[in-house]
Amino acid sequence: MRVIFHGVRGSIPASGIEFSRYGGHTTCTEIMTDTAQIILDAGSGFQNVTLANDRPIVILVSHFHHDHIQGLGFNPRLFSKQSEIFICSALCSKDSTQSYIQQYYNGTYFPIDLLSEISKLEIVSFNELKSIFARDLTIESYNLSHPGGSAAYSITTSTAKLCCLLDNEYREDQFQSLSTFIDEANLTIWDGMFTADELQQYRGWGHSSMEQGEAFLERSNCKRLAITHHAPYRTDIQLDAMQQSFKDTAIFIAREKQVEIYD
Ligand SMILES: [Zn+2]
Ligand SMILES: [Zn+2]
């Protein structure tokens, strides 16, 4: 399993020299397995994904806040690809997924009607998706705490397991069920939008802190934890300082273009 972080920001992209090392694109993580290319969320980082030619592509959407879908129409390869491309969200039905994307990319907020233009984009329900890939992949979901809801995903191959917990306002009463969900994961992706201090002012906004990620890693049996969905105002220097403050070397602040391999 190869993991590439194509976008590590939350809310809106960040531009400027002070954000250049960690990167400014909104959230998008690519997971390449032997049998599928899975894209977790299509924030603006999605424009830089090299879409696979030799295996099906799955775009898994956690929820439809704009930082998770705003890049979908901006990957030029999407318009020329012959591979099958599935779009799916465990958050809602197939019809709702279709309707949310249609509303966003319909000629009003975007120049063309994306779903009509690209006929190979196939929207499927989460159960359909699971059965399509059942032979090679186990894909599971978990309901996170976020305004409007958000779906966590776990993807397990014969060699590795990855979990993505975006977007989530962590609550202590999630610990047991989340620990079960991420059990023995090689990598867990954590919503680190806020610092512990900031979180006091932003209760109810649907995000966690980086410090909560570190505490969660300590108590769970996840092997590695990536902090992502960085606030758009969080500078490289601040992220470096946070990285240095972590005592556990299994936690890292994700950077755009970072590649992780789990075999
Ligand atoms: Zn978000
Ligand atoms: Zn959100």
Structure in words:
The strands form 2 sheets. The protein has a 7-stranded mixed sheet with strand order 6-5-4-3-2-1-13. 21% of the residues lie in helices and 22% in strands. The chain is of the alpha/beta class and 263 residues long. The protein contains 7 helices and 13 strands. It has helices at 94-104, 114-117, 126-132, 175-181, 196-201, 210-219, 236-245; strands at residues 2-7, 28-32, 37-40, 57-60, 85-88, 121-123, 138-143, 151-156, 161-165, 187-191, 225-228, 251-253, 259-261. It is globular, with a radius of gyration of 17 Å. It has a single domain (2-261), classed as 4-Layer Sandwich (Metallo-beta-lactamase, Chain A), CATH 3.60.15. The chain starts with a strand and ends with a strand. The protein binds zinc ion (2 copies).
Sheet with the most strands?
Answer: 7 strands, mixed
Number of strands: 13
Radius of gyration: 17 Å
Poorly predicted ranges: none
- Provide mean pLDDT, rounded: 96
- Provide the helix percentage: 10-25%
Bound molecules: zinc ion
Instruction: Identify the CATH homologous superfamily.
Output: Ribonuclease Z/Hydroxyacylglutathione hydrolase-like
Which percent range describes the beta-strand content?
15-25%
Distance linking N and C termini: 6 Å
Widest β-sheet, arrangement of strands: 6-5-4-3-2-1-13
Total of DSSP H or I helical runs spanning 4+ residues: 7
- Overall geometry: globular
- Secondary-structure arrangement, i.e. CATH architecture: 4-Layer Sandwich
Structural domain count: 1
CATH class: Alpha Beta
* Secondary-structure element series: EEEEEHHEHEEEHEHHEHEE
And the CATH topology? Metallo-beta-lactamase, Chain A
Q: Class by helix and strand content? A: alpha/beta
